[in-house]
Amino acid sequence: MTKDADVIIAGAGPAGSIAAYQLAKAGVSVQILEKSEFPRYKVCGAGLTHKILSEIPFDISPVIETKIHTFIFSSGFNKVFSRNSEYPLIYCTMRDKFDGYLLEKAVAAGARVQFGEKVTGVELHNSYVNVFTRNRTFTSFLVIGAEGATGAVARSANLWKDIMPGLAWEAEIRVDALSLQKYSDTVFLDWGAFPGGYGWVFPKGDHLSLGVGGPASLSKWMMDYYKKFLIYLENSGIAVIETTSLKSWPIPVRVKRGNFHNGRAIVAGDAAGLTDPLTGEGIYYAIRSGKLAAESCIGFLNCSAPSLLSYSKAVNQDLMTELLEANRIKYLFNTFPLRIHRFVNDSDRAWRAFGKVLRGEKNYADVRNGFGKWKTLWNLVCCIAQVTSYFAEKRFRKTGFH
Ligand SMILES: Cc1cc2nc3c(=O)[nH]c(=O)nc-3n(C[C@H](O)[C@H](O)[C@H](O)COP(=O)(O)OP(=O)(O)OC[C@H]3O[C@@H](n4cnc5c(N)ncnc54)[C@H](O)[C@@H]3O)c2cc1C
Q1: Among 34, 37, 44, which is best to mutate for testing ligand 1, by the most ligand atoms less than 8 A from CB?
Q2: How many CB atoms lie within 10 A of CB 221?
Q3: pTM, to two decimals
Q4: What is the pLDDT of residues 285-323, one digit of tens each?
């Protein structure tokens, strides 16, 4: 049977393009099927935490618009304080540029891409895979589902499991020149307004990106929250001139370890639910899982591995350990939002730890390990917080914002 490629990748987001780049660099024939035409707008804050830099195997400075040194924290738009870091913590981009750049690198390395091909499902066989699009059927040895939160490959390969749905709204806002300049290295972060909810402003080259997110079960209140955020910005002296691209998009969060491959199919990035439940960050995990996916496919195609099991193992060990820990911290946050808010304000140690997590010098598991012999107590408090968090959300659903 003629194959269209060794590996077919559904989706040219960060997960798909980085996997394609790594595969093509290793001499594997790779075909990306992307439903849109590039460049395309992507609903996303597009804040890249510093730790991503060491994960991307080439320089991304051509698509970085701003560097973040300052955070302005608020809790439900009250108790505002700011914190500065000598080193950049976050880099902001726009997804049309960032994704286009990664795809360009993959194509330069030898990957092929076809736009306007929406993958609708896959059929897994012992020695090959059929990948269906609206227009035709493609055949390959392996398939990587990197199609994001739509999860077409993930669902079809029976890998869309244990996903807790999150949701976020995002808009691009044009503001007065003075504010744009004043906040060009500053993120606004509001948290604690409702259980699991948060809002952010990321400065871009010529505008600000404003977003709010939280559990999909509380989506009904998110537009209210978004409007409150706009008022808060205006009260902070920022004149909003125009709002464009106000849109929502799901944030899938995987809440259990398990399989991330099935036979000859792998899922990566949002299609695998690999997003941080605390912050909604997903690009870093898309990049890391895309690289792991490529590594596992190369091992399988070289006959050095009998299956793609190494991928599920690596994702469970390297990524899920982190993400499950983030989920526990989220429960703590939902239970003690004001205390944590004050802690970040009052304690230099807490602020430094926050910075170290963003810069990749510490991870969430280190936060727990930092409790040393009190680790058991930490685990217990997290369990109690999970229950309290459930009731906090239930209560909020009854009362909404006061
Ligand atoms: C409002 C909002 C704000 C966010 N802000 C941030 C942030 O600031 N920082 C951060 O790190 N993360 C953020 N995220 C999360 C981040 O956007 C995702 O985690 C990230 O895009 C995942 O990358 P991916 O490659 O897995 O999927 P995607 O980026 O979603 O890419 C999937 C690609 O596949 C294509 N596609 C979809 N379906 C099909 C199909 N059936 N066939 C073929 N192609 C298909 C899409 O067109 C797209 O190009 C945010 C998410 C939302 C919703």
Answers
A1: 44
A2: 17
A3: 0.97
A4: 999 999 999 999 999 999 988 999 999 999 999 999 999
